[in-house]
Amino acid sequence: MEQTAAELAILLEGSVSGNPEARVRRLGKIESAGPGSVTFLANMEYEKFVYSCRATVVVVKMDFRPKKELPVGITLVKVEDPYRAFATLLDAYDNILKRDEGVHSSAIIHPDATIGKGCAIGPGVVIDKGAVIGNRSELRANVYIGRDVTIGSDAMFHSGVRILDRCIVGNCCTIQGGTIVGSDGFGFAPKEDGSYAKIPQTGNVVIEDDCDIGALCTLDRATLGSTIIRNGCKLDNLIQVAHNVVIGEKTVIAAQTGIAGSTTIGSHCLIGGQVGIGGHLKIANGSRIAAKSGVSASLLHPKGTYQGNPAMPIKAFQRFQIALRKLVRAERIKEKENT
After folding, report:
1. Cis before 310? omega within 30
2. What range defines the domain where residue 48 resides?
């Protein structure tokens, strides 16, 4: 990718301060970007780096005024929102990195599968009977698509993704390497002799449009019906979603969170890393749950913020922590007085 500052300004709906013909070929961090790079300044805590930066172009906020002289040769592209502008650049760069369309010679595609136009099917990919792959989707090395799976258009599945039988993935979804969609839910019925009988998991997983699923996640199929990830959800790495869970649209979940079966999470929720959520619960729309919290009861008040184990409203958690510290200090003082 080689573009001039003027071309970048058009793409980002900004303006050029400096040399409009300055050329860039790569993206870089403001601390370490070199000549030929474009970087950005969104957080003013990083402003100090712009005065020693070796990048050719820096994307800055429209009202940015340097406090001292900039390095020779730096051109500024001024935009309304540098962070969003750089996200646009990253997206454009990512599109350049996409594989050429076509089917690798080592891919195995069932005659009854349907592959859309403009798809890139990588080495070792297996697509089973009845599967449908939408237009312009990219399946990288060793992806497995099971029977009667439906994949929308413009999907990106990284190496080792498994989409198992009858599951559905919508348009414009990205799934990172090693994630399994549609593995059996954890369902076992106790028997009189103390052993367990496996309960067949006959449902599927439905991932709606514009979702991003991180690496090494497991999304279990429903016992009956569907485990559902609604439009626009963003899941980090190493997340467990159990059978019959429903995650509302545009909810964001950080790494190593586990959600037990048949729990419903509302829309626009923010859930921190290593949160544990019990089964058969309801989480209200707009809830925020701090990292390492344990949710053992439903959270029914919209836009509430929770922390702790068991999770409680954050102000109650803070009062609890203050009281606990006071108690510990009092005990230490008492111990000193008795010695």
Report:
1. yes
2. 3-97
75 three-class SS = strand
Domain boundary among the residues 81, 97, 113 is at: 97
DSSP 120-134: EE-TT-EE-TT-EE-
The model's pLDDT over 28-41, given as tens digits with 9 standing for 90+, comes to: 999 999 999 999 99
* The last residue of a domain, from among 80, 97, 114: 97
Q: Give pLDDT, residue 164.
A: 98
Structure tokens at 268: 């626009």
CA separation, residue 310 to residues 52, 148, 225, 296, 317 (Å): 48, 41, 30, 6, 10
Q: Which residues are catalytic?
A: 243
Identity at 238, one-letter amino acid code: L
What is the distance between the alpha carbons of residues 214 and 138, in angstroms, rounded to a whole number? 16
91-119 pLDDT, tens per residue? 888 777 777 899 999 999 999 999 999 99
- Of 226, 217, 110, the closest CA to residue 174 belongs to 217
How many CA atoms lie within 13 Å of 33's alpha carbon, on the beta-carbon side? 26
